[in-house]
């Protein structure tokens, strides 16, 4: 008899937990899958959907956005987050309704958003005043390294009689002109060159 009462109470708790649930999902997240390190990041349209079965009451909500590297060696305190505020039309979000987010501005890239080049995860999570179960959005992003320029004007270094050049094995190069194309060599001050 006690076993039946226990099973019945578990069933009632299970049904009541799922019968009146306030739940929100972030859907339709659209952004580039690859970006340059210093380029601005464009987060396009996405939706915050009430997928529960009762309305969410409130006049506003917060939207947190962060780009987190997938590299576990980076410290967790260095990630930058952004906070955006939104309003709920008519102060109620009915079941099945959605709030559309469309960013009309880029988010500054570079060291303000990315720690280094590599794999990242874009995380978006809304926060409401009323208690709501939230399904956070996590989408992949790859950050390309910074674009570097090649300084090809080395006439001053070559014509400097005090400057010596060395090959990959550390041997002194007497005449740079006689090196074959594609050879790599170094100057005494640590600059690297490739003969074209």
How would you explain this protein's 3D organization?
- The chain has 196 residues and is mainly β.
- The termini are far apart.
- The mean pLDDT is 78.
- The longest helix has 18 residues, at 2-19.
- The protein is elongated, with a radius of gyration of 29 Å.
- Helix content is 12%, strand content 36%.
- It has two domains: 21-144, Sandwich (Immunoglobulin-like), CATH 2.60.40.10; 155-194, no CATH class.
- It has a five-stranded mixed sheet, with no helix packed on it. Strands 8-3-1-10 form a four-stranded mixed sheet, with no helix packed on it. It has a four-stranded antiparallel sheet with strand order 13-12-14-15, with no helix packed on it.
- It contains two helices and 15 strands.
Spatial strand sequence of the major β-sheet: 2-11-9-5-6
Q: Can you tell me the CATH superfamily of the largest domain?
A: Immunoglobulins
User: Radius of gyration, rounded?
Assistant: 29 Å
Q: Please, how many domains?
A: 2
CATH class of the largest domain: Mainly Beta
Shape: elongated
Strand content: 35-45%
Report helical residue fraction: 10-25%
CATH architecture of the largest domain: Sandwich
Biggest β-sheet description: 5 strands, mixed
Order of helices and strands: HEEEEEEEEEEEHEEEE
The total strand number stands at: 15
Task: Set down the secondary structure blueprint.
Blueprint: H1 2-19, E1 23-27, E2 34-36, E3 46-50, E4 56-57, E5 60-69, E6 81-87, E7 92-93, E8 98-101, E9 118-128, E10 133-135, E11 137-144, H2 155-159, E12 165-166, E13 172-173, E14 184-187, E15 192-194
Parallel strand pairs: 1-10, 2-11
Antiparallel strand pairs: 1-3, 3-8, 4-7, 5-6, 5-9, 9-11, 12-13, 12-14, 14-15
